[in-house]
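Exam prep: given the inputs below (a chain plus adenosine monophosphate), describe the expected output before reading on.
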Amino acid sequence: MRILVVGGGGREHAIVHSLSRSGGVHKIFVAPGNAGIRETASIVPVRADDIENLVRFARTEQIDLTIVGPEQPLVLGIADRFEQEGLAIMGPSAAAARLEGSKAFAKAFMQRHDIPTARHRTFGAGDYDEAVAHVRACGAPIVVKASGLAAGKGAVVCATVEEALETLAFMLRERAFGAAGQEVVIEEYMTGEEASVFALSDGKEYVLFAPAQDHKRIGEGDVGPNTGGMGAYAPVPIVTDDMLDVVCNRVVAPTLHGMAAEGYPYRGVLYCGLMITEEGPKVVEYNCRFGDPEAQAVLPLLADDVPDLFEATARGALSGSVLSMRSGAAACVVLASGGYPGRYETGFPIEGLEQAAAHRDVMVFHAGTAPGQQDSGRSETVTSGGRVLGVTGLGRDLREALDRAYEAVGHISFEHMQFRRDIGKKGLRPS
Ligand code: AMP
Ligand code: GLY
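Solution:
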């Protein structure tokens, strides 16, 4: 098969890695990729949201299957355009991707289908005074979210009414998130532990991956600002088999049925971000793609032939598929640039990549990396983003997976590198 992967982060490196593990002979292209991906796939210099050029490339290069990593092209309708051209693609239509692209849509959808989630109200730019009154009436803590895509920065958990009012003004008045924040969702604060459940659906049937847990805050002990994710592990002990049954019956199945019934069958990866509350699992958010860095933990655990699985998804032929997972656990530690998720510098040479990757059951996934100068006599790879690398360890259990990941991390260095030393700690707690 000739396969095109769209995107250029750690998630896409993990997708490419899982495709290249397959027994079949495949040619893999990635647009735009990064310095690590270029070792296993051919780089296509087209941006992930440049849909027309991606269509052109897929037609010219006779691509059999396209797999989309990030949300932006999906929300912009890449799947619709490929399907118009008769090109197979794994990812939801723009209408189905609204589950991520519009929190207002997602919340109203959950209400229509009785899917457990935080109580909420949606306000438009013209409803500012009403939104203020609503916040005052509810009190704090309370959560204020920009409805549209905001690169993971659009959800603000507010500890005080003042903070919520400032956030409202920031979004609705100052238009800090542009159009994405012209509609806001104000919702009840939920407490519990978070987990991510990924379903792969062809629009009719679905299969589940191992549940994962992300680490959103920058600081150890879950403090500081939210990031795209500083590490992940899978499976997650709090998501027991019984809990997973509840998640399937109350969340995954009703979501997929509801989308089909409303005329937007969901084809692709459905990410259910959950809060495991005392009343049971509730949806924090949906995403229309694999999580990043969750994919770097979940995909290496897959024992199946990934190209066949993704092709069956794209062609609506998942019926009868059962995912087989390797036993054991996976843990991914993200190495980020100093200053991230705020301002950071890039262009620093990365040392120790080969030593880290030489470890048994370790994968070094590249995120924000670029090829450096060949003649510098130093490292050939430099930092180019906030999240730079994701180092995944596999083990018989979470402890072993974490030990392997951190041992490999010990080889890697770049100027101002930061990472969390407590990834997976919650999963090690006796239940
Ligand atoms: P979101 O962008 O909706 O996934 O939110 C980002 C993060 O904010 C989540 O992973 C949670 O940690 C937190 N969060 C969002 N909504 C809520 C809520 N209703 N209650 C508590 N925490 C929340
Ligand atoms: N790690 C969170 C996300 O991918 O949205």
